[in-house]
Amino acid sequence: GINAEYGASFKNHQRELRGGSMPKTRMTGLDLSAVVAEMRGCLGMRVANVYDLGPKMYLLKLAVPDRPKAYILMDSGVRMHMTSFMRDKADTPNNFCAKLRKHIRTKRLEDVRQFGVDRVVDLTFGGGEAENHLIVELYGMGNIILTDGAYTIINVLRQHAPEQEHVRSVGDVYDTQQNIRHHHPATQERLQAMVQEAVTSDGTCLLYTSDAADEEDSVDLGGRRILKKKKKKNESGGSLMYINI
């Protein structure tokens, strides 16, 4: 699983996993599932402080008596994980950090969940009328959104331009169901049906993967990985279909 060293050596860790090749620059939904499982070990701990490490990077410090302190790093649009690596902090918190401190400092971390299999995490602090949610989006350019218990937006790190999808504005209600993809068990029948639906008239098979958008040289403009289909005759005269990535 993901451990505390993940934060200290994110790129080296990814390079080792990929056999020495170039590291991933973004976390996948599967990476995030492992991170969420680890962060749930911090449930019950209180927010001791919030630090801004840069315009898009923030650090949550969690503490509770008789337990080691825990730190959650949030790098909007890139990564989110536990860390034990200490970084330089700003002497004066920026406006967004100050707002986070005002609303969630001293509150207990009550829940951590991932929206489906998407790269979106919802951290719940406090309960009842004092409940707040901190939603971290790791897709696209990313975002960090602070809401109340009813998901009404209190503050947002990056407010999208009006012409962009999913505009975030203070006072709006965050839609927790937007574009959420849920996990469905893979079966032979489902895979065959997906391949048949994806095959085009020229024999090209277009299948979507969650990290395809990061592989610019192997996807079309729709963000889909391009797979080629070719047929080979078997001994009985039938056809076998191979899909090459």
How would you sum up this structure, described in words?
With 245 residues, the protein is α+β, with helices and mostly antiparallel strands. The chain is built from 5 helices and 12 strands. The chain has helices spanning 5-8, 10-17, 29-39, 95-104, 188-198, and strands at residues 46-52, 57-63, 70-75, 79-82, 109-114, 120-125, 132-137, 143-148, 153-156, 204-207, 225-233, 239-244. The strands form 3 sheets. It has a 5-stranded antiparallel beta sheet, with helices on one face. A hairpin with a 6-residue loop joins strand 6 (120-125) and strand 7. The chain is globular, with a radius of gyration of 21 Å. It starts with a helix and ends with a strand.
Descriptive terms for the model:
245 residues; alpha+beta; 18% helix; globular
Helix content: 10-25%
Intertermini distance = 27 Å
What integer value in Å does the Rg equal? Answer: 21 Å
Q: How many DSSP-defined strands?
A: 12
Poorly predicted sequence stretches spanning 5 or more consecutive residues: 1-10, 13-17, 212-236, 238-245
